[in-house]
Design a protein that fits this description.
By secondary structure, the protein is α/β, with parallel strands linked by helices. It has 7 helices and 5 strands. It has a 5-stranded mixed β-sheet with strand order 2-1-3-4-5, with helices on both faces. Helix 1 (4-21) packs parallel to helix 6 (142-160).
């Protein structure tokens, strides 16, 4: 199981890199119910990069607030990789952020939308068309599934933010 300290470490790392780059972050949460935002805002100085969050727990909010395709929600339900991707892109757009994160899934105690407990999708949307979704099959109780979802979405973003990103950009562009 992930400890709170591990999650806080990832949150601090991504916020530091975002601040160094002058970039912002927004979060759309379903099964995590605000835990990703809480993890981020527990880091001193988070306001330099964190714009805010939308807790779209109810499926209609995913459509009405975040702009997730209604036909997609009708056909597949809220626990879906494409829904997670659209949530991340939607919160990025709605909150005018450089990066958007999203969590959707089933923490339990009961299955949802035909998906078993522990089925989770986390997503990141960012500049330059960055779009990543991770499908997770988590074990544990409701609290453990939610905590691991928080860690996983922050790790997904961390993977898109190499700490030496500026040096890599310079190399790709031929250097100056």
């Amino acid at each position: 199981m992930t400890t709170a300290a591990e999650g806080a470490g990832v949150a601090a790392r991504v916020l530091r890199v975002l601040a160094e780059r002058g970039q912002s972050l927004a979060v759309a949460e379903s099964l995590t119910g605000g835990l990703v935002a809480a993890e981020l805002t527990s880091v001193p100085g988070a306001s330099r990069s964190f714009r805010g969050s939308v807790t779209a727990y109810a499926t209609p909010l995913k459509r009405d607030v975040l702009g997730v395709d209604g036909a997609l929600l009708e056909a597949r339900g809220a626990v879906d990789a494409d829904v997670a991707a659209q949530m991340a892109a939607g919160v990025r757009r709605v909150l005018a952020a450089d990066w958007g994160l999203a969590t959707t899934g089933v923490a339990g105690p009961d299955p949802q939308d035909g998906q078993p407990v522990g089925t989770v999708y986390v997503a990141v949307a960012g500049p330059g068309g960055v779009e990543k979704v991770a499908a997770l099959r988590l074990n544990g109780d409701r609290t453990e599934i939610r905590r691991e979802s928080v860690r996983s979405v922050l790790e997904l973003l961390s993977g898109e933010l190499p700490e030496n990103g500026r040096a890599q950009d310079t190399e790709r562009n031929g250097g100056n």
